[in-house]
Amino acid sequence: MSSDLRATVVGFLRDAHSIEVQSLRQLESAPGMAGEPGLARALGDHLEETEGHELRLRGLLDARGASPERLADDVKGADSLPFALFALAQRQAPSRLAAQVYAYEALETAGYRFLERLALLAEDFQVAEAAREIREEEEQMMERLEGLFDATVAASIGSDDDARLVEQLRAHLAEAHAIEAHSIELLESGKKMVEHPTWRGLFDEHLVQTRHHQKILEQRVESLGGDPSVLEDAALKIGGLNWSTFFDAQRDPLPKFAAFMFAFEHLEAGGYEQLRRLADRAGDLGTEVAVDQILFEERRAADRFAEAFDVAIDPEIREPRSERS
User: Fold this and answer.
1) Which 8-state DSSP code applies to residue 167?
2) What is the 8-class DSSP label of residue 313?
3) Which long-range CB contacts under 8 A does 198-207 form with residues at least 24 apart?
4) Looking at residues 194-214, what average pLDDT do you find?
5) C-alpha distances in angstroms, 228 versus 39, 174, 178, 233?
6) What pLDDT, in 10s, does the model give residues 74-100?
7) What value does the mean pLDDT take over residues 285-297?
8) What's the pTM value of the predicted model, to 2 decimals?
9) For residue 275, which of 207, 179, 185, 143 has the smallest C-alpha distance?
10) Do 43 and 34 contact (CB within 8 A), yes or no?
11) Which fold does the domain 3-318 belong to in CATH?
12) Is the dihedral angle over the CA atoms 302, 305, 310, 312 positive or is it negative?
């Protein structure tokens, strides 16, 4: 194994450990604020799994000479990645919390896919096995959360009063519109950052879809008696992030960007899954059909990003030095 590839594996391993530490911080308080019994149980169970993940990664790092002091520095430096994701879904109703954790699990899943690929290239089979096994547990947590979307929406609504349902539906549509605006910013940042034609093509394709999603959401808000101020208010509540600066500051920015895009699509998918259920409760068939169309495209985009993960790993890492003369 080359020293460069070994160092890269350790770097990705340290990133995975840092994000698990952040996950522990979130999960320690999350069950008590879940607001829905099934979600609280799932979060509590996953807290125990995450404690095991952190210990396992720490052991792998210790065996590869990563000092506790450096681990502590990494944890401080990792704060921005998960919290940038969570900043886009601020309200802590059960449905929002479920969507946040769902996206976080997708972020971890993507990170472990990269770690497994790199470890196999480096013939570090112990790390590859750990990455695969932990990824499978993260994916199982995502499945548990998907099974809770009905219950978390019901717990978040609080009342089946028609006027209240319409009001909530307008607000959720406006928030989805604001998050699509962030998706546009992210995709445009990706086009500036990434030169590989596969990824640029994916960004171009999903940009067209995302702009269309915004128009669909605007039409649905208008159909429910909303006006442009509803969309503007939602955009102000969610706020803005400087995505280009954010990713420029990251170590290994391209794989991190790819993982973040995968997670972002799941943040949107989780939101749309629950928006569709809210539309059903409100009897708004038009919104339900529209959201189904958008949801299909968001999930397809996530799948296509995942299919392109291999080309997000720097070719300098995968290509033997003797072949790069």
Assistant:
1) H
2) S
3) 198/308, 198/311, 199/258, 199/308, 199/311, 199/312, 202/301, 202/304, 202/305, 202/308, 206/297, 206/301
4) 93
5) 34, 9, 12, 9
6) 444 444 545 455 554 455 688 888 998
7) 96
8) 0.85
9) 179
10) yes
11) Ferritin (1.20.1260)
12) negative
